[in-house]
Amino acid sequence: MTASGATSGLPDRVHVREVGPRDGFQNEPETIPTAVKVELVQRLVKAGVTRLELTSFVRADVIPQLADAAELLRAVELPDAVSVSVLIPNERGLDVALELRDRFDEVNVFLSASETHNRKNVNRSVADSLAGVERVIGRARAAGLRCQGTIATAFGCPYEGRVEPARVAEIARALQAAGCEEVAFGDTTGMANPAQVRSLFPRWAEALPGAELTAHFHNTRGQGLANVLAALDAGVSSFESSFGELGGCPVPVGATGNVASEDMVSMLHEMGVETGIDLDGLLDAARAAQAHLGRPLSSHVLTSGPIEWSTAHA
Amino acid sequence: MTASGATSGLPDRVHVREVGPRDGFQNEPETIPTAVKVELVQRLVKAGVTRLELTSFVRADVIPQLADAAELLRAVELPDAVSVSVLIPNERGLDVALELRDRFDEVNVFLSASETHNRKNVNRSVADSLAGVERVIGRARAAGLRCQGTIATAFGCPYEGRVEPARVAEIARALQAAGCEEVAFGDTTGMANPAQVRSLFPRWAEALPGAELTAHFHNTRGQGLANVLAALDAGVSSFESSFGELGGCPVPVGATGNVASEDMVSMLHEMGVETGIDLDGLLDAARAAQAHLGRPLSSHVLTSGPIEWSTAHA
C-alpha cells in the first residue's frame, strides 16, 4: 500500500536533520553521560542519519546537560557523509567551537520572531539578537562553515499570539543576507496548523530565493505530522525532528515537544517519500535512549511498532 | 492566525460523530457505571456534539462494559438536534434495540474488508457478515432508522497487509445498495497514510454516488490528524473521533487508538473548518472522564491546553 512519492505529488526524497542529541539531551533533567551520548549518536548514524545537530556551545552553568560539547565532538567518530551541526548562541560560543573546527560542518544560529519570546529566552531584543547572529554568521562563513538560521515562534508566540508573517520573512531575509544557506522555521510551542503552513511557506520561499527552507514542528497539540504533510504540499523538502520524541522544551510539563523522528520517517516512507534513514535502525536508537533514560518515550511507532505490510501474521 | 476554511480550499464545516461512549467505554477494563456514562454524555452534548454513537447492543457476556445499553438509552435526555446512533452487531441486537426505537435515530452496522480480520473479530466470512448486515439494514430501514455501514481494516489489515481498494468499494456498494446512507471507512489499526487516503477516498466516492463517506482514523502511528487533513483534501466532510483519545482497541497495549476528538476539533477550528463543537466544552468532558477513570488520558490538547491567540500572557 506504500505509494510512490512521484505519483502522489509529493517529493521523492527529503532531508531530515536529527536534533535529538542537542534539543533532546538538553532538556533531560539528568545530564546524559558523554559515553552514552556517543553510543546513541552512533546508533543514529548507523540508521542512516546524515544531518545531525550534535550539541550546543552554551555556557555550562546555563545548560549543564551540554557542558560536554567539546568532549562529545572529540569522542564521536562520524563518517564524512554526515553533516554535523552545532548550535551557537553567541560569539563566545563560536570561539570555543572553532577550536574544534575540523570536527563539525555547520552552525545553527537562532532568534525568535516575537520580541517577548526572544527577551524571555535570551534577554535581548530581536534587533540585538539579529546583530549578534549576523556577527556569528560572518565569522562562521569565514571559517568555511555552512550556516543555518532558525527562527523560533515563526507560527505563533505563546506570549504575543499572532506573529506577523512579513516580520518573519524580514528576519529570514536578514539571515540569508548575512550568509545563511538554510533558514529553519520553528513552531516552538506547537501553534501551527496545516492551513497556515500551506499559506506561509510559499510566501517565505518567495522572499528567500536560493535558500533552503526547513520546517521544525512540535507535536504539542498533536498536529505535528499534519503540519509535515502540509509543508510537503507547500514545497518544503527539509525537516527537523527528534528521535524518541525527546526534547522541544515541553510546556506545560507533560506536553509533547518535537515531532518524533520515527513517526515522521514512518509516515514519509509509507507515502513513498525517501529519507535515507532506516526506520528499524532509528527505532533501535530510540529504544536504546529509552533504556538509558529509564522511562517510556512517547513516540507512537516506538510503542506500536512499524507497519507490517507482509502477510507474515496471517 | 486562524484561517478561513473557504480561503484555504478546505470545507467550511464538517460533521463530527463522537464515538467515545461506545468505542471508548467498551474498551475500558472496568465497566463505567451508567450514571457516570450519562453525566459524560451530557457534557459532550452540552459541548455541541450532534452526532453521537452512544452504545452497542452486543451480548452482555461478550462485552460487559456495554451491558447497560438499554438502561443508558432510557436514562440519557438528549435534545432532538442530537442524532443518536447505536452499534448493531446482528439481528438479535437489533431486536433488543428496537424495543427502544424512539430513543435513537441511527444504527451502525459493521464488517471488515479483510477475511482474516473479520474471522478473528466475529468468526464469520466477509460474505456471511455482509448477508447478516444486509438483513439488519433492511429491518432498520423499515423501522425508519438511518443506517451507517462501517468497513473495518479499509486501509490495511494487521494480518493480511494490503486490502484491495476495489474490494473495499465492492463492500461499500453492497452496504449502500442495502440501504446505508453513510459508509464509514475505518483505519482499524492505524495503517493508513495521507497519500493513500488522498488516493482512495475519491475512488470510493465515485463508487458511491449520493452516499455520505465518513473517515474513522486511529492515531496508532501518530498519523491520525495528517490522515484527517488528507481526507479533507480528498473531499471528505464527515469524521469520527473519540473524546479523551479513549478506545479504538489499542494493539499493542499502550498504543494509541482513536483520533482524539479534542485534537481533531482543535486542528479543524484553527484551520477555519467549523464543527459546531465548543472545544472548551469538549475538554471539560475529557477532563471529567479522566477524573472518573483515575488515569491521565493521552490526547494532546487535554495536556497542553488549547491554543491561545490572545495577548493575555504578554
From TrEMBL, chains A, B:
Pfam families: HMGL-like (PF00682)
Superkingdom of this protein's organism: Bacteria
Keyword vocabulary terms for this entry: Lyase, Metal-binding
Residue span, Pyruvate carboxyltransferase domain: 14-283
Molecular functions per Gene Ontology: lyase activity
Region (Disordered): 1-30
Recorded family membership: Belongs to the HMG-CoA lyase family.
Biased amino acid composition, Basic and acidic residues: 12-21
InterPro entries to which the protein is assigned, alphabetical: Aldolase_TIM, HMGL, PYR_CT
Organism of derivation: Conexibacter stalactiti
Protein name: Hydroxymethylglutaryl-CoA lyase
